Amino acid sequence: MEKLSPAQIKENFDRDGFVFLPGFLSTKEMAELNSKLELFIKEKVPALAAQHAFYEDKSDSSTLKQLFELHTYDTFFKALLYQRKLKKLAEDILGEEVIAQNLEYFNKPARIGKPTPPHQDNYYFMLSPPSAITMWLALEDVDETNGCVRYVRGSHLQGMRPHVKTEVFGFSQGIINYGREEDIKNELAFPASPGDLLIHHAMTVHRADANTHHSRSRKALGLVYWGKCVAKENMEIKEAYKRIVADEIKANAIEKSSI
After folding, report:
1. Cα 205 from Cα 151, distance rounded (Å)
2. Cα gap 51→214, rounded to integer Å
3. In 3-state terms, what secondary structure has residue 114?
4. Are the CB atoms for 90 and 133 separated by under 8 Å?
5. Angle CA 17–21–23, to nearest 5
6. How confident is the prediction along the chain (259 residues), in pLDDT tens digits per residue?
7. Cα atoms found within 13 Å of the Cα of residue 58, Cβ hemisphere only
């Protein structure tokens, strides 16, 4: 696939609400990243705060599904989040200086990884204007059997959709009226290889199916950047988002204890 110029990347992003950049990181870069992540999970995850590590089954460490704020625990991931190449890309896309907000890890363990409900990130971010992007970096091969990302083209231009509470721990909110004709017509699936990068707007509707593969996981990193125009004026939003996560953890703990 021909490499896109910065102007083409922004044009595609502004039109579709997302852009796909295959081979953004090299094989060598990915080998180092995956090695660092494996060590991080082994040595540091057991001691993480509950709101920063989610499992499909809390009693089984092999079912780790989400990690938040890796950059606050490890200098390698902090350097990755603040890497000039990534920040410059975010700035080119948003057309303004950006502030790095979060580095997250997402996994769908083989056979048990649940679907990611259709949602818009800004329902959680609550930014006005919604000047923010998420970069989704594939850590391993991803396809339709193990839960590749699916975007609805142009949905970032249609405003906020109504969301409702879901039963998926880690993704507590989902679009209530998803599945309309225009959703189905404009939805695109994005199989990816290690090092491929997907970037989406905070208002872009996206989802992922469950991982139905018998042995393959679906691991990825998410890097979140806010435009400076909103980041400086909305720092209290971080605290509001943390409260949402804390409430979700508390609710999940209550549900587990009642089983």
Report:
1. 6
2. 29
3. coil
4. yes
5. 160
6. 678 999 999 999 999 999 999 999 999 999 999 999 999 999 999 988 888 899 988 888 889 999 999 999 999 999 999 999 999 999 999 999 999 999 999 999 999 999 999 999 999 888 989 999 999 999 999 999 999 999 999 999 999 999 998 887 767 789 999 999 999 999 999 999 999 999 999 999 999 999 999 999 999 999 999 999 886 656 566 666 666 666 666 555 544 333 3
7. 13
